[in-house]
């Protein structure tokens, strides 16, 4: 568990407690399991409780933290794309009295997803960047970002080219969505406006690992925010 970020650890804590419920797990046992301090476990449990996760402390020598199974959901069959779509939709609650409640609901849903689906959702969310404070337009059809794509793309003048691209992520602006990818035709990272992708085919080829760095986005103004499922 070394190197696991806090969001992943919170999900894993809930899954661990759900797996053994109604039996308790002590803070020291959880600390050893996740290779963190007891104090870190206590802070994590407190954060989960504040978000509405039904965890309670059972006193005594054999006590510890328990998850109330009667008030938790069974594994939720949300896809990664559905979870990310919900996170983007919740952006429209910013500035309303229900912003915190919406994000809390999303955390509960992600915690109830199957572990592999939650991990895939986190990977997809990390590939989405939002630019500017304005409302985000509807999310385009999510293109597979783990396979090489063949696309027909129209430029500003309407000229269509065929390209093979290696997707790296999305950038959402108040006006448009862009698919950021390594373009094999231009041999560099390019931004493709999704409404100009006339058609696409998902190939079976897994592209080489490339990291999308903030400087690769080459955005001269505005703050870029990475989407998160943690609220």
Question: What would you say this structure looks like, in words?
Answer:
This protein is an alpha+beta fold and 231 residues long. The chain folds into 3 domains: 66 residues, Winged helix-like DNA-binding domain superfamily/Winged helix DNA-binding domain (Arc Repressor Mutant, subunit A, Orthogonal Bundle); 48 residues; 78 residues, no CATH class. It contains 6 helices and 9 strands. The strands form 2 sheets. Strands 3, 4, 5, 6, 7, 8 and 9 form a 7-stranded mixed beta sheet that branches. Strands 1-2 form a two-stranded antiparallel sheet. The chain is elongated, with a radius of gyration of 21 Å. InterPro entries: CBASS_pafABC_assoc_protein (IPR051534), HTH_11 (IPR013196), WH-like_DNA-bd_sf (IPR036388), WH_DNA-bd_sf (IPR036390), WYL_dom (IPR026881). It holds the Pfam family WYL. This is HTH domain-containing protein.
β-strand amount: 15-25%
Regarding quaternary structure, what we see is single chain
Class based on secondary structure composition and strand pairing:
alpha+beta
Continuous helix count = 6
Number of E strands: 9
Rg for CA atoms: 21 Å
Largest sheet: 7 strands, mixed
How many separate domains?
3
> How are helices and strands ordered from N to C?
HHHEEHHHEEEEEEE
Helix content: 25-40%
Average pLDDT confidence is 83
Q: What overall form do the CA principal axes indicate?
A: elongated
Low-confidence segments, given as residue ranges, are: none
> Distance between the terminal alpha carbons, to the nearest Å?
23 Å
Domain WYL: 146-202
InterPro entries: CBASS_pafABC_assoc_protein, HTH_11, WH-like_DNA-bd_sf, WH_DNA-bd_sf, WYL_dom
Protein name: HTH domain-containing protein
Domain Helix-turn-helix type: 9-65
């Amino acid at each position: 568990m070394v190197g696991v970020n806090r969001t992943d650890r919170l999900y894993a804590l809930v899954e661990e407690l759900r797996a053994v419920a109604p039996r308790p797990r002590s803070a020291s046992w959880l600390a050893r399991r996740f290779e963190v301090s007891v104090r870190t476990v206590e802070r994590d449990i407190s954060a989960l409780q504040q978000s509405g996760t039904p965890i309670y402390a059972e006193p005594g020598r054999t006590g510890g933290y328990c998850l109330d199974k009667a008030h938790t959901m069974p594994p939720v069959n949300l896809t990664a794309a559905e979870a990310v779509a919900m996170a983007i939709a919740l952006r429209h609650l910013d500035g309303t009295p229900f912003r915190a409640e919406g994000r809390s609901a999303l955390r509960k849903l992600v915690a109830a997803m199957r572990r592999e689906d939650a991990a895939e959702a986190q990977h997809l969310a990390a590939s989405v960047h939002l630019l500017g404070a304005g409302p985000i337009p509807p999310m385009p059809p999510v293109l597979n970002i783990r396979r090489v794509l063949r696309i027909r793309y129209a430029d500003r003048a309407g000229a269509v080219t065929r390209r093979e691209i290696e997707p790296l992520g999305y950038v959402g602006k108040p006006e448009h969505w862009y698919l950021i990818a390594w373009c094999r035709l231009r041999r560099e990272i390019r931004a493709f406006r999704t409404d100009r992708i006339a058609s696409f085919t998902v190939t079976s080829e897994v592209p080489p690992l490339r990291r999308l760095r903030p400087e690769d986005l080459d955005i001269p103004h505005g703050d870029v925010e990475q989407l998160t499922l943690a609220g």
